[in-house]
Specification:
Distance between the termini: 56 Å
Number of strands: 12
Low-confidence stretches: 19-78
Strand order of the largest sheet: 8-9-7-10-11-12
Order of helices and strands: EEHEEEEHHEHEHHEHEHHEEH
Number of helices: 10
Strand content: 15-25%
Structural class: alpha/beta
Bound molecules: 3'-phosphate-adenosine-5'-phosphate sulfate, adenosine-5'-diphosphate
Shape: globular
Oligomer: single chain
């Protein structure tokens, strides 16, 4: 028989009921009444945790029952669905700009594409480390890793690769909206799929980085032995062997093999960091 463990009373947020002997009652805090909220002892940058509620400055936003809701024109703008039915975007009073201000950086997606073995994961890690050391918040979405969880149901058929890429782009978009510099590292071999991802982001916030390393170099590295298996016909549809890789035509950054040698990963990461600095992503 399982025992019932009685913990502390739940914190209930709602209008006072006149009966305070039960669970601890807390009067609802109207968003409109909040104004500036100073959080003592918080590690927020500066002492102002929230800026004045921005939603109130936007004429398309109305406050109903203390909740910000958007309507009309903006609804169409913010939904990514072609025919949104009975779905209304719920706006939060803390917005991307507020989060960026807190983090002193701009959220974006750095999309690293290239053949298997071209050094995507290595550069992603060097970049994450370099930015972390500068006090910038990053998160890596590595194709291999995401395929262990969220995308474990997907194969390497063209339509599954497209879905893999689409889902990762949507997750990267959430991270970017959180104000985080999201580093996605996946083969993403088809131009069309990468262009669909780019279209999800505001202008400039999708930064495509091409690992321009020749197939023979990647194949010589073959750290997982997958090229060998693909050449032996034991893996079908392997990128670069019997499935195409379409190099980007207009990407933001190309990381190239220099002569016979590849630049060290740290140097490649610095190239990306310089780009972010120049474009203002390392400040709010
Ligand atoms: N058929 C086939 N083609 C290409 N790659 C294959 C394949 N099967 C397994 N792998 C391994 O899966 C990793 C690629 O996953 P991705 O999610 O980046 O691929 S994709 O963007 O959906 O094309 C890739 O990892 P990386 O080597 O890090 O690129 C491979 O290790
Ligand atoms: N800039 C580089 N120069 C030399 N070797 C590298 C470089 N970057 C990565 N490598 C090596 O290449 C192999 C594949 O790198 P990895 O980052 O796993 O590639 P990918 O994620 O594109 O499959 C690894 O053994 C790694 O140590």
């Amino acid at each position: 028989m399982s025992a019932v463990v009685k913990g502390p009373p739940p914190l209930i947020c709602g209008p006072p009921r006149g009966d305070e002997s039960g669970p601890l009652a807390v009067q609802s805090l109207s968003v409109a009444k909040l104004g500036f909220l100073r959080v003592k002892g918080s590690n927020a940058i500066g002492s102002t945790f929230l800026r004045p509620i921005q939603a109130m400055e936007d004429s398309s936003v109305s406050l109903r029952n203390d909740c910000a809701a958007i309507s009309g024109r903006n609804l169409r703008q913010m939904s990514t669905m072609e025919n949104p039915t009975n779905i209304v975007w719920h706006k939060s009073p803390v917005e991307k700009l507020d989060r960026q201000h807190l983090l002193q950086q701009k959220g974006c997606a750095i999309w690293i594409t290239g053949l298997s073995g071209s050094g995507k994961s290595t550069v992603a890690c060097a970049l994450s480390q370099g930015l972390h050391m500068r006090g910038k918040l990053t998160y890596i979405l590595d194709g291999d890793n995401v395929r262990h969880g969220l995308n474990r149901d997907l194969s390497f058929k063209a339509e599954d690769r497209a879905e893999n890429i689409r889902r990762i782009a949507e997750v990267a978009k959430l991270f970017a909206d959180a104000g985080i510099i999201c580093i996605a590292s996946l083969i993403s071999p088809y131009r069309k799929d990468r262009d669909v991802c780019r279209a999800l982001f505001p202008e400039g916030d999708f930064i495509e980085v091409f690992m321009d390393v020749p197939l023979h170099v990647c194949e010589n590295r073959d750290p997982k032995g997958l090229y060998k298996l693909a050449r032996a016909g034991k893996i079908k549809g392997f990128t670069g062997v019997d499935d195409p890789y379409e190099p980007p035509l207009n990407c933001e950054i190309v990381l190239q093999q220099k002569g016979r040698d590849c630049a060290p990963p740290g140097e490649m990461a610095e190239t990306v960091i310089s780009y972010l600095e120049e474009k203002g992503y390392l400040q709010a």
